Structures are given as C-alpha cells and as structure tokens.
Amino acid sequence: YISKARMASIRIMQTSIPNKEKYAAEAKAIIGWLGMILYDMFGPLPYPSDEQLLLWDEHPLEGKWLARPTSEEFLAYLEDNLTEAIPELPETQDTWGRLTKGAASMILLRVHLMQKDFVKAKTVAKSIYEMGKEGGGSIYELMTDYSKIFSIDNQRNKELILAIPCDGTKDYSPNQWYCAVMPADYVHTSTAAKGSSTHRMRWTFYDTYEKGDTRLNTIVAEYTNNKNKKVKRGAKNLENGALPFKYDQDPTTNGNFAKNDIPVFRYAEAILGYAEAINETEGVTDLAKHLVNLVRNRAGLPNIEKVNNGAKVASPEAFREAILEERGHELYCEGVRHMDLVRMDKFVEYGKIGLSEYSLSKYNEDPRRAVFPIDPQMIIDSKGVIVQNEAYK
After folding, report:
1. 288-292 — which CB contacts under 8 Å span 24+ positions?
2. Which of 152, 134, 135 is nearest to 144 (CA)?
3. Labelling 210: which of 56, 146, 319, 344 has CA 20 to 30 A away?
4. What are phi and psi of 146, to 5 degrees?
C-alpha cells in the first residue's frame, strides 16, 4: 500500500489535471501516515525506489522481494515524502477528513520523535503551534471543555487537526470505541446499542491522575447498571480497570456503530510535542512549562511548577517524565501511548506496572518485543529475503 501511494503520486504528476501537486502531496502524506503506524507496530518495511516502481509497473513479472532497510533508512524515506508533501497541501480542506498541511506536519512530528531528532521535531511542532490560537494563528485552538472535543454535538471542532469522519454504518468508518468499552449492563440512551466490554484503563494508570482533573469526567470508575444497582471499582466489569469511554453517547448508535468522528491528531498533542522537543534541546524553559500548562489548565489543574514543590520541573529528566505522564492523561486511547513509551525507553518498565506475576509481564520484559513478529509466511515466500524481528527468531 505504501508503494501504491508512491506510484499514485508519480502518475498524478504525469497528468495535466488541475491541482495535481496537491493530490500528489496527499498521496505522499498517506505514505508517511501509514508508514508511521506500521513502523510503530513492526519496525522498518521494505520500499522500492521510484525507478523500481516504474519498471515493475510496466513489467510486473520482473518484481522481486526487497530486504528490509534499517530503521534510519525507513524513517528517512517517510520524512522525505512528508517534506515533499507539506508545502503543497492546503491549510484547510473543504472535504472534512482530507489531509492538510497541519495533518501532514503532525505525521512528520511523530516521525521526528521516533527518530529522536528533537531539533527537527521542535521546528515542526513550532510551526503547528503557530497555526493555532495559542501560538498566534487562527486555524486551531484548545477547546475550553475537554469532553466537548469528542462530543457527538461538537464534531469538526477547531482542536481537531485530522479526524476520521464516521456515519455510523459498517460501510463507512463507524466509531466502535464506546460500545467496545461499554459493559452489557451499562445504560445507553440508544436501546439498539450493544456493549462488548473489552477495553479497560488499568487502575494503576487511572490512579496517576491528579484530584480535580476534569479529564476524569470521560472515564467511568463506578456506575449504576440497568438493574439500578451500583457497580463499584473491583466489582464485575470493573475488576481490571476503569471504563475509558473518551467519547460521549451517540443516541443513534446501532449495535456498536456510532457517528462520533475519530480524532487522529489534535492541537493539544502538537503543544505537548513542542514542549518535549524544547526540553530535549534547551532544558526546562519558561516556554516549555507554559506549553504544558496550557493543557493542564484546560483540565482544571495548577501550573506544573507548583506541583510537589516544583519536583516535576527540577531537571530535564524529571520534566521528561512529567510530559510523558501528561501525554498519557491527555491522549489516552488515541493511539500514541506505545510509541511514547518506546521513545522514552519506558516500554518494559511501564508495561509491568499493575500486572501479576502470572500475566504477560514476562513477555514484555524483552524490549525487542516492542514490535510484533513479521508474518512467517512472508518470510517463507521471500525465501529469507525478509528477515524476522530479532525477538522472534
């Protein structure tokens, strides 16, 4: 699919259609988006050069398996595509859900963070920050109420840099998150909603939230069930953790299909990414603290320098840990926790917290298992050209 997107960008540029640069840029941004997700899950993937793509397009029987590149080579390939795409993309799109300059910049920010290239990450994060109200721009802004970001009544709000549009049907990207979290005995405004009770937020993580954090309003720690009985922490359906609903209820939910758009990138993530990049390159500056405080204050929390007598900003190392915690609280269930833990070398340490000695914690004690195994059939079909991830050999 990465190769198809690259080929699409090449073919588009060979046409004479209006706005071809923008359409080719969208294809290149998709390479970065898809590649970033796959890299986080599996590590580097093979990719052909443009010359190979054109050759194999004309002569498909000449195609061959390619060896996996290094992480540095693959991330550089994603960076190149995104860097080519961003100047050609518009700041806004008439069609909701299409890639924009801000969305592609968010992908590039994540790629730079994966590279631990905080100098480049700072430049990109700053550019996104300045697109928003808090940075002097007008395209994005932090919502006053955290829960409203994900509300069915507040779709397409200005905090969303990119979201997946959902219409509540199985044929067009339904949002299934709320019902995946919801226990069968939970009361929903739609009698047609069906809960599968599969997702939980570990209690050990839930307990790291500060008292008064309004983001807790989107997480349920106890509830009254459909038999009018109180279900408390530790009881059935709340044994392993709280209910991380994130979204509010869509009254038209049918089965487990809701219409809440799914956030992909938010302005708050760019702000926290900017703070992290500043801390890693300049240390604990006033601007870095201000950026974190923008997100904290929105959640009803005091400035970070006032917490624990300033312990969280006492050093770059302490501030790094504080930013990781803030990202976890702000971006829970938005698909960034894994890459955050890997980047900050916390995958093993945090993966074991709150797990029993009989759980999968020992599986996660190997940091090489931060990525999944490659499908063995692919290795067989390639006659060994594709090499398995180290932990699974």
Report:
1. 288/319, 289/313, 291/129, 292/322, 292/323, 292/326
2. 134
3. 344
4. -55, -45
**CA angle at 23 for the pair 57 and 264, rounded to the nearest 5°:** 105
Tell me the C-alpha distance between 180 and 262, whole Å. Answer: 14
Residue 38, both tokens: 């796959």
Which is nearest to 173 in space by CA: 245, 246, 258, 242? 258
Contact between 106 and 269 (Cβ < 8 Å): yes
What span, in angstroms and rounded, lies between the C-alpha atoms of 20 and 385?
36
The helix/strand/coil state of 239 is: coil
What whole-number distance in Å separates Cα of residue 143 and Cα of residue 298? 8
Q: Residue 284, SS3?
A: coil
- Summarised one tens digit per residue, pLDDT across range 36-72 is 999 999 999 999 999 999 999 999 998 899 999 999 9
User: Which pTM does this prediction carry?
Assistant: 0.95
The SS3 call for residue 380 is helix
* Sign of the dihedral through C-alpha 151, 155, 161, 165: positive
Nearest CA among 173, 175, 195 for reference residue 185: 195
Give the rounded distance of the alpha carbon of 237 from its chain centre. Answer: 27
The amino acid occupying position 284 is V
Across 169-300, where does the E strand assignment appear?
Answer: 201-202, 219-220, 223-224, 230-231, 241-244, 262-266
Q: For residue range 371-386, what is the model confidence (pLDDT) as tens digits?
A: 999 999 999 999 999 9
- Distance, CA of 131 to CA of 150 (rounded, Å): 21
- Rg (Cα) of the chain, in Å, rounded? 22
